[in-house]
Amino acid sequence: MLPHKFIEARLQAAVAAVLPGANLATVLVRPCPDAQFGDYQANALMALAKERKLNPRQLATEVLARLDVAGVCAPVTVAGAGFLNFRLLPEALNAALRAAARGEHHFFQPTAQPRTYVVDFSSPNVAKPMHIGHIRSTILGDALARLLRLLGHRVVTDNHIGDWGTQFGKLLVGWKTRLDAAALAADPIQEMERLYKTVHAAGEADPAVLEQARRELVQLQEGDAENLAIWRRMIELSQVQFDDIYSRLGVTFDHTYGESFYNSRLKSVVTELRDRGIAVESEGAMVVFSDGTRPPKEDPFLKQEAGEWKPNPALVQKSDGAANYTTTDLATLAFRWETWRPDVVLYVTDGRQQLHFQQLFAIHRRWRPEAAMQLEHVWFGSILGDDGKPYKTRSGEVVRLSDLLDEAAERAFQVVREKNPELPEAECRRIGRVVGLGAVKYADLLPNRQSDYVFSWDKMLAFNGNTIPYLLYAYARIRSIFRKAAAEAPVAAAAEPAAVAAVTPEEVALAKHLLRLDFVLAAVADDYRPNFLCAYLYELAGHFARFFENCPVLKASPAERASRLVLCDLTAGVLKQGLEILGIEVLEQM
Ligand code: ARG
User: Among 386, 115, 130, which residue's Cα sits nearest to residue 246?
Assistant: First the structure.
């Protein structure tokens, strides 16, 4: 068991003995904010004392009298208003390292309460290129899904692609009247995008074109065989592009139901909402108004205009009878509930959809109050160019994801070749692909997801600072120690679990940082913020560098050498595991 889990269990037992019936879920052990006072801290006793009108320091003293952490912690002290501070004994630290070396834990503990998560992410639109805007959703969603799985939750990933909607009217007109077969064969997405843009422009000038598009759309909705066949073809062609990008990114989905999957359910969603009085008619459309249960500030169905709260209803059926994005999302939620009974549904999209999801969640609660799911909009900011505006190509167009990934591999190849002029070109290319892809992913996961960030090749490909070249290099350097060790003494190279002991201050600091992984993974899963893990890994590489600088490994005495090799191996394992959660591959050599 990880030492902090052991302390937590013992602390809960002591609290239960002093306060029978207390809610032990709140009795948690956290890393001490200031290492000067200890390694771990518990502050739950203060809240428990307050609830019961007890003196917190006295309660802490009584709990201490029952607390048995002998052999793991130095004598525990009460601090401040009733905090408990715990300091790990060297034997306990070393026992944790040995257990890790034997593979008994990997510095984190899977969840004790597995939950079912549906993760809705990526979700690009058919007949359009996937662009840089989709990358954040794809990378963030994938990292969260990987972590939640690793922690032992049941995770269902669903790519909610935009494969239905009014755009198909124009696309159908274009396909039937202006299709360039050769262009379609060469680059289907570009051709479909051209068709859409051409018909859109023609429609601006000539209402007859719009009328034609409307008729094609109605025919599609009514199940016309020809239009359905063309529509299916457009989805197929788009899926080829999506799959190509996903395979390059190493991202997979359990399902790609897409919006059209819910078409047959939309009518009944609107009918039910109307019958229950949740949606009402307004100017021929069906809309949802505020139910007045929330303060105006938190009510997504109100907006402030000239100092006054005005209705800001959600549309669930347009005046022409068509359903929309919200209707589809309601049907999707009902389906997800029926199919997977999730505890949590995560939606990973950009911040501009906040209002949509606030309204969606509120309507769903009113419509299906019994479906007790936690609904979370995991939103993110934009990727900006140097000019502070959304990142564009030099000619001012949106950046296609496939071009971006090509450029990443090419730039990383240049960097790698410069560093390793003796490596064969093919090897530099292979390394370049891993570094380039890792750099794009890492740059995206590193900032707090809700802030915008400025896209910079130079920054993300630098070997200094919190970057992927730096972390991959740290990993490869550890691996090279083992190659050297094996070359010097083939038998003794393997890390020997029994031998490990953190003695010098650098070894102790490194070992204690390894033991923090569990807290970091929990925080990432609680807040849906992989940037906590990025910060942790960067600090880990720093601790390792200080250790390696001050503590010789291969040149140390046999006992020290064996122990330090274990520390090296454990560090490499955590680096690799951490990067794997972020969807980033490591390299044995760089
Ligand atoms: N296709 C949408 C877009 O590109 C994102 C869909 C997000 N998921 C959802 N269930 N609404 O903006």
Answer: 130
Test site for ligand 1: of 353, 354, 363, most ligand atoms within 8 A of the Cβ: 353
Ligand 1, atom nearest to 349 Cα: 7
| 55-64 residue pLDDT tens | 999 999 999 9
Residue 69: closest CA among 93, 49, 83, 89: 89
Cα–Cα distances in Å, from 430 out to 245, 457, 463? Answer: 18, 19, 18
Which atom from ligand 1 is nearest to the alpha carbon of 356?
Answer: 11
Q: Verify whether ligand 1 is closer than 6 Å to residue 77 (CB atom).
A: no
For 6, other C-beta atoms within 10 Å of its C-beta total 17
Tell how far the Cα of 348 is from the centroid of ligand 1, in angstroms: 8
Whole-number Å distance, alpha carbon 565 to ligand 1 midpoint, is 48
Ligand 1 center to residue 349 CA distance, Å?
Answer: 7
Asked whether the beta carbons of 580 and 573 are under 8 A apart, the reply is no
Residue closest by Cα to atom 2 of ligand 1: 123
Quickly count: other Cβ atoms within 10 Å of residue 341's Cβ: 12
CA-CA distance, 545 to 459, in Å (whole number)? Answer: 21
- DSSP per residue, 328-390: HHHHHHHHHHHHH--SEEEEEEEGGGHHHHHHHHHHHHHH-TT---EEEEEEE--EE-TTSSB
Residue 285, phi then psi, degrees to nearest 5: -100, 170
For ligand 1, the distance from its centroid to the CA atom of residue 226, given in whole angstroms, is 27
Strand partners, 255: 158
pLDDT in tens, 278-310: 999 999 999 999 999 999 999 999 999 999 999
Distance from the CA of 350 to the center of ligand 1, in angstroms?
9
pLDDT higher than 70, residue 490: no
**Whether this model's pTM surpasses 0.90:** yes
> What distance lies between CA 572 and its chain's CA centroid?
22
Q: Is 324 in the pocket of ligand 1 (CB under 6 A)?
A: no
Which residue spans within 134-217 are E strands per DSSP?
Answer: 154-158
Secondary structure of residue 315 in the 3-state scheme: strand
Upper half-sphere CA count for residue 107 (Cβ side, 13 Å): 25
Nearest CA to ligand 1 atom 6: 123
* Amino acid sitting at position 219: Q
